[in-house]
Write a structure and sequence with these properties.
The protein is α/β, with parallel strands linked by helices. The protein has 28 helices and 16 strands. It has four domains: 184 residues, Rossmann fold, CATH 3.40.50; 97 residues, no CATH class; 169 residues, P-loop containing nucleotide triphosphate hydrolases (Rossmann fold); 165 residues, no CATH class. Helix 23 runs antiparallel to helix 25.
Length: 667
């Protein structure tokens, strides 16, 4: 082995780390396991280059996320690279790096929109443009009424389209038809809306786009690099004299990112490349990440790299490391210095599962001295599974041990389709006075959205004015006493006839006094059919239906709609008293003392002292069967745990992944 020039401060690297630190191959792609100190190992490789005399300005380190940039900066400091030296390098997300390259071509002046809230007005402009174009062409009315409430989901679809370059590669300039949409793998209305949004963003008559949001710079640069007539003739924007290119989180690489990487290495042929990632953490629907960019595609288009392993986890104890290795089918060791306690708990039914989850959380939170609470995450496969858990956490929390926040979804109390249902229950009871401040206006907006109603004053110009309409809704919400008449006269009377018929039948069921009112209400409402009219994405329609069904299922113990609504409003008040701790905080990580309720996707890259995963039932966790994505989701979920992992399943219905991991008797 080549002798190293760089010795880090405070620890001795493992043989695997030293091999990567000193590798002389032009291209190195490290096959790392979860928790195996990937970022520290990259810092060692950078330290070695510096120790051998490489100028820091000739080093570029790229990551997928801004927290990963910060983690790499911290790792460089930890191994002993001076801060002033690290600042002289280019440590960037791929998107920021791409934006800086484009700025050299376009000049400054492109507005940057960081959040969905900032992008939302532009997206609504695109909705109106698409709606007007459809009307001009005599098309049937498009299901766009609910776009305002589903901005983040649509932007996630747009991010996937840009990451994969799917539309650009499969149907450049083609008319969006159902066949084209099927080939791309997306709803045709969402694709047309993407096109309308891009037309607003990038007017070809202008020298630069009007704005960019996350993912746009990488997409724009990739498209420019792929163009037959690229917008750069004299000096290539990626010819930057780099001698070392490193890429963290390589498993998150998508087609657009890989296009930038290809051209970056081609324009800097003297540069060595070191990428590190875990192919078993690839979840394709997140911006189009694909493991082939660490494997076959890299070999084919860049060259066959050296592929050293980084197999020992500093997070997982030996038992968890062995289980993760069995799931992924690869060697997986442990250097944590502790054992991760793994518990697999069978449950009698869903109610028993909720109780056991709460017990696991409470035990974890109370097992340490007062004032010191471990980080705990409850990982869910789908958002509707949070409803029963949130109810229990809000109802049985005298000591604050079950205070929670969410990631990957909002608290169920603020989901649009459930605000709609809460509004119907209030209408059935004739009482809108129990809502917490701010929620009543949201309920009215949801009622208008799902009924496709507008306020009717007999003045068409005013009635179609969205700003005036919003003002009227806010004004009505200020006095709850007049809301029942307002809902009857303006929401229900002006609703689409088929929707109004379903709602009236549901209201009758809620007012009927039968003990079976929840079942009758749900059957009459047909929530998924209503959602189909107003939501663009099929996944949102299905999730809305699942949320409504799970919500109404919790009403079984209440004799009336009024008593159920009173309980729900009481829970929301308790949540408000917690400072709306259940509102989404998607990248909060382990830094908060509250329990995290999250989707698995939302915690990729994070770690927790204790992880609880309910719902590991056959055919329920692996939605659609045993796919690479589903298996990777299970792998990502279990490898977030440090000290304890609790897995729950219904008796006799355990997921095959538990058996594959060797965690069931006889496995």
């Amino acid at each position: 082995m080549t002798m190293w020039h760089f010795n880090p401060a405070g620890f001795e690297p493992t043989p695997e780390q030293r091999a990567i630190q000193c590798a002389d191959a032009p291209h190195v792609v490290v096959q790392a396991n979860a928790g195996a100190a990937k970022t520290t190992t990259l810092a060692l490789r950078i330290g070695e280059a510096l120790a051998r005399g490489m100028p820091p300005a000739h080093i570029v380190a790229l990551t997928y996320t801004e927290p990963a940039v910060q983690a790499l900066q911290a790792s460089l400091e930890r191994v002993g690279v001076p801060a002033r030296v690290a600042q002289a390098m280019q440590l960037r997300t791929v998107d920021r790096f791409s934006a800086e390259c484009l700025e050299r071509l376009e000049g400054k002046g492109v507005a940057w929109l960081d959040t969905p809230e900032q992008v939302k007005p532009r997206l609504l402009q695109a909705v109106e443009a698409l709606r007007e174009a459809a009307l001009e062409q005599g098309e049937p009315e498009l299901p766009l009424a609910g776009v305002e409430a589903w901005v983040e989901g649509l932007l996630a679809d747009f991010l996937w389209l840009k990451g994969t370059l799917a539309l650009a590669l499969q149907a450049p300039g083609a008319r969006i038809t159902p066949a084209v949409a099927a080939d791309v793998g997306m709803d045709p209305v969402a694709l047309r809306l993407f096109r309308a949004h891009e037309a607003l963003r990038y007017d070809p008559r202008e020298e630069r786009p009007a704005f960019r949001s996350p993912g746009d710079a990488t997409y724009d640069l990739a498209m420019a690099l792929r163009a037959d007539d690229p917008p750069f003739l004299d000096v290539h924007p990626l010819r930057l004299g780099f001698e070392l290119v490193v890429l963290d989180e390589m498993h998150d690489t998508n087609r657009a990112m890989f296009t930038v990487l290809q051209h970056l290495l081609a324009q800097n042929p003297q540069a060595a490349f070191v990428g590190v990632g875990d192919a078993h953490q690839v979840i394709h629907k997140l911006a189009g990440a694909d493991a082939t960019f660490m494997r076959d595609e890299f070999d084919r288009t860049i060259g066959v790299p050296l592929r050293p392993p980084l197999s020992a986890s500093y997070r997982a104890g030996p038992a968890l490391a062995a289980a993760a290795g069995r799931v992924a089918g690869k060697p997986f060791g442990s250097r944590s210095g502790w054992e991760t306690d793994i518990r697999v708990l069978p449950c009698e039914d869903d109610a028993d599962q909720v109780w056991q989850v709460a017990q696991a959380v409470r035990q974890a939170r109370n097992a340490v001295p007062p004032g010191s609470r471990p980080s705990v995450a409850v990982l869910l496969r789908q958002a509707h599974l949070s409803i029963a858990l949130e109810n229990h956490f809000l109802d049985h929390n005298p000591d604050g041990a079950l205070d929670y926040r969410t990631a990957g979804f909002d608290t169920y109390l603020q989901r649009p389709e459930l605000l709609f249902v809460r509004g119907l229950l209030a209408q059935a009871a004739g009482d809108f006075e129990g809502f917490v401040p701010g929620t009543l206006a949201a309920v009215l907006r949801a009622l208008f959205m799902f009924t496709e109603s507008r306020i009717d004053t007999g003045q068409p110009e005013r009635d179609s004015d969205a700003r005036w309409h919003a003002t009227q809704v806010e004004a009505m919400a200020a006095d709850a006493r007049g809301v029942p008449a307002f809902v009857e006269n303006q929401v229900l009377r002006n609703a689409r006839p088929a929707t109004r018929e379903r709602i009236e039948a549901a209201l009758q069921a809620a007012r009927g006094g039968s003990a079976a009112w929840p079942t009758l209400f749900l059957a009459a409402l047909q929530a998924e059919q209503i959602a189909e009219r107003v939501l663009v994405r099929a996944i949102d329609v299905a999730q809305a239906g699942a949320n409504v069904a799970a919500f109404i299922a919790t009403a079984a113990d209440y004799q009336s709609a009024a008593s159920f609504l009173e309980a729900i409003n009481g829970r929301e008040q308790r949540l408000v008293n917690l400072g709306r701790g259940g509102r989404r905080n998607a990248r909060a990580g382990a830094g908060s003392s509250r329990v995290l309720l999250a989707t698995v996707e939302a915690v990729k890259g994070l770690e927790f002292d204790e992880v609880v995963m309910p719902g590991l039932n056959r055919g329920e966790f692996a939605i659609g069967g045993d796919s690479t994505d589903n298996r990777n989701l299970f792998y990502v979920g279990i490898t977030r745990a440090r000290r304890r992992l609790t897995l729950l399943h219904r008796k006799g219905q355990a997921s095959a992944y538990l058996r594959d991991a060797g965690l069931l008797p006889g496995a």
